Structure formats: C-alpha cells, structure tokens
What we know:
The chain is of the alpha+beta class and 133 residues long. It has a single domain, classed as Yope Regulator, Chain: A (2-Layer Sandwich), CATH 3.30.1460. The chain has three helices and six strands, in the order αββββαββα. It has helices at 9-19, 71-78, 109-127, and strands at residues 22-25, 29-35, 41-51, 54-65, 85-89, 92-100. It is globular and about 45 Å long.
Amino acid sequence: MRSERMTTWGDVQKHMRSRFRLQDDEPDMMSMVWTYEDERSQKIIVRKYMAANRDMVEFKSAFARKGDVDPLVLLEDNSKLPLATVALSGSVYLVIYNALLDHLDIGDFDFILSRVAAVADALEEKYVRRDEF
C-alpha cells in the first residue's frame, strides 16, 4: 500500500546509507555493489535528475561493452526484460530503470535495486560470459 507521504532524495540517501555499503556517495548519485552467493557481483548506480520539471531517480547497471553483443539480438531481448530496459551509453551497455521520485515507494526500493542488478548480471553472464561489471 502506498504511503501518502512523497519520497524525497533525502529518503533515498538515508535508506541506502543505512542498508548498504556504498561505493560512491555524492549529492545526486550513490552506488553500491550487489554481491551474489556464487561470488558474482553487479555495481548499481542510483542518481537523481530532473526531467520535464520533475525529480526523477534512475537505477542503472552496466553489463557489456559495445562489440560484446549483437545490437539487434539485444534489442530483441530488450522487449522481454522484466522491469528495466537496456541502453547504450558511450561504449557501455546498461540496464536502466527510471521512476518519478515522489512516486517511488521506499518500501519497493530494494526490490527495484535487486531486479536491476539481477537483470544486468543475467545479461552480462549471457553475453560477456565473465563477471566484469
């Protein structure tokens, strides 16, 4: 059930600082590494930005470099991904999920974080076949 109170970036920062060991802790960006029992890991970046005069939050995790994957195959896989989508940023492929900050339920935060990490890790394992990101 959604809380009546809107989530703020301060809520996100407080939550991440209290629940995870952070790799980066900047005013508008935080990152952490999600580690799995099989010792694979996945770095996830969470950042605040503005779009159309609204505060947004972005979850993103790299999984491959340009040339590691056929873009057409990846585009076809993209339509089947749960929760997130893929994008190319420079020479790196990312799994990305964006949300309106004031509509983000902090109770769902860990779920979104874990799903972005899991999707990125699965794509990395499929296309790169090594734990690089």
